[in-house]
């Protein structure tokens, strides 16, 4: 990741603010001017995470959160984020607002697209969460696993199988991703043969259709997509 220019981010201090058109990475992460920004104090479902709706059907709640966020941010741009800290991955962690002053974190939690993360929030968004839970909206429609617990479960599964699992071929990995339906990044092949992937929230994500017979596939992470020879869509 290239560092942002000085016109968008002032010298590193607690008063840093970055503003601009936001590209949604997932339900709690955006990118502005090349800077990856993690929302402070909340946690949204992961892209591959499944939740249960009011009818008992599973759905990709992480992808849905990202799509809802992208639509909401686009209706009042630009987005501004005030620096809080750098996390262990070097990401800018911040408190963000839309152009109309609405808090991004509060909106996500209030509408059931993310959770208050007590470990980092000190209950800052607990009121919004209680309201969303009472209204049974978003992830609160049915049973689900808190994102931080879901990630821990995935790590445990990975650790327990690492000593006996073989690395799958690219073909089998693609098939597994397609069959599972749990991965949300769309690997599309254009008429010119270009391999381009789309993440939830991008302009053409919803209308892009994946045809495995043409060599198109789903990816569970951008790293996986790039390693397979795809590049990120610019829109």
UniProtKB/TrEMBL annotation:
It comes from the Bacteria. Gene3D superfamilies: 2.40.50.90. InterPro entries: SNase_OB-fold_sf, Staphylococal_nuclease_OB-fold. Signal peptide: none annotated. Coiled coil: none annotated. Residues 24-142 form the TNase-like domain. PROSITE patterns: TNASE_3 (PS50830). This is Succinoglycan biosynthesis protein exoi. It comes from Mesorhizobium hungaricum.
């Amino acid at each position: 990741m290239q560092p942002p220019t000085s016109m968008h981010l002032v010298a590193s201090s607690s008063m840093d603010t970055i503003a601009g058109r936001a590209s949604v990475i997932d339900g709690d992460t955006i990118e502005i001017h090349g800077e990856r920004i993690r929302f402070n104090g909340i946690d949204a479902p992961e892209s591959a995470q499944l939740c249960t709706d009011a009818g008992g059907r599973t759905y990709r709640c992480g992808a849905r959160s990202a799509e809802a966020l992208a639509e909401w941010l686009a209706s009042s741009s630009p987005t501004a984020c005030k620096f809080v800290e750098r996390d262990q991955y070097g990401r800018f962690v911040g408190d963000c607002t839309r152009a109309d002053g609405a808090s991004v974190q509060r909106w996500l939690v209030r509408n059931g697209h993310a959770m208050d993360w007590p470990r980092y929030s000190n209950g800052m968004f607990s009121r919004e969460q209680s309201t969303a839970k009472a209204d049974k909206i978003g992830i609160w429609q049915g049973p689900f696993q808190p994102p931080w617990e879901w990630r821990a479960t995935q790590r445990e599964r990975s650790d327990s199988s690492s000593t006996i699992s073989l690395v799958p071929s690219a073909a089998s990995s693609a098939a597994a991703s397609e069959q599972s339906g749990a991965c949300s990044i769309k690997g599309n092949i254009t008429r010119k043969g270009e391999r381009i992937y789309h993440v939830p929230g991008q302009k053409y994500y919803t209308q892009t259709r994946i045809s495995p017979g043409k060599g198109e596939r789903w990816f569970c992470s951008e790293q996986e997509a790039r390693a397979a020879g795809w590049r990120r869509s610019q829109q």
